[in-house]
Amino acid sequence: MQDKQFEKQNVFGKGSENTAYAQYFTGNSYLNPLTSPACKPFFANVTFEPGCRNNWHVHRAAKGGGQLLLCVAGSGWYQEWGKPARSLAPGDVVEIPAGVKHWHGAKKDSWFSHIAAELPGEGTSTEWLEPVSAQEYDTLEK
Prior knowledge:
The chain is mainly beta.
């Protein structure tokens, strides 16, 4: 997808470079908070450059919690540990229960944006794990 076409589709905006979490990403990502961090649930538009993905991670919670992804622009991937990767496009919704090891990001040839919502719960945290290897990522088809 061309950059201008993507920017037109990405109605929530690219935001600023995601420097606070850069250590947990392969490639560059951008963050545009849509609500204040005090708002529960907190919503942010996360944009991934082509080939960018986050590390494997788990949203922990003693009760409730998890994450919701609302895909808004471009083309991406979502994968749970031990399962095949799922192709993502605008309009797709991904429900991620607490305790599920997963990753998400852009396809090699496309920018990708999703609204990420941190679901309310008790004792919530994110455990960042190992990067998705180039070997794992390169086996994914378009």
